[in-house]
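Table 4 source record.
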Amino acid sequence: MSQALEKNQDKVNLLGMDLDELETLMECWGQPCFRARQIMLWLYHRRVASFDQMTNISKSFRTELTQRAEIRFPKLVARTQSQVDLSVKYLFELTDGQQIESVLMYDGDRVTVCVSSQVGCAMGCQFCATGQMGMIRNLKAYEILSQLMAIEADLDGPKTATNVVFMGMGEPLANYREVIKALRLMIAPEGLMVAARKITVSTVGLVPRIHAFTAEKMKIGLAISLNATTDEIRTRLMPTNIHYPIREVLQAGKEWAQTMRRRVTIEYVLIRDVNDSLTDARRLRHLLHGIPSKVNLIPYNEIEGVQLRRPSVEQVERFRQQLADGHYVAPVRLSRGNDISAACGQLRTIYNSAGFVLDSSSNIV
């Protein structure tokens, strides 16, 4: 219940509250417990933005809800569409003025929403634009959920996302409590009812949190951002490797895969002359031996101010073929939204000293 109340807010934000919290709130307000489920169905199934729309609730209680509660969504600041693949990048402003980015991607019948879990990121990965921002704050569960809800509301017709990936701004497992809460609300029968197997959480490899995630036994996918085959190179690219080296990270991923009876996804960003050699490909085959896994190869998406470069198409194919020769599933993941800085590793908002956004992409519609 306390999570629903924020500093300097007189009203309770009902968005992001789970069934137990809403039942407790209804009890405090002298209402029957079944009101909690009613409200959740209106919030998450019907996606209403006003208490007046909750027509199976008495008018007097709707008036009380208006006085004591609210449904808090972020403000859409900009909507930027790719001219290449129709991907859309959304810039949202939160109630405290902070801003985050989310992405909508199309691939045939697949409609994927990429959500953020933090404003900025503390992991400091060299190849990631969000990491250049530094850490500002964690998102609340409702701020995570509302990205998906706002994007689905923007789709033409009665379309919904087929897939959700926690691969936007931030390290999801570093915001563990709120991310888990958001995930539970996404898959709950009275929540957004997203199929658990259609959701994937990506992590740089926070080993204790991977163990905790495994213990949740949620049928949600896990992706580990590996990006190197030696601890020396991975530490240079990803400072967290100092604390959680490759073998520990992969062992945690293996335990998750065995517990969940699913393949863990290994994300590997290919960077020219850093981690893209055929020797790296062979080492990767050796590292993944015995681990139920698949590999997503991601040619590096270049970002301003970072000297890393994207490998040639031919080198990417040679790397992929080495993995294929070892019977590993290793598709090259096409970068979507590259022309609007919405591709993997490119999300960020840049602030001046007054806290205002300085950059935004073109093609705003």
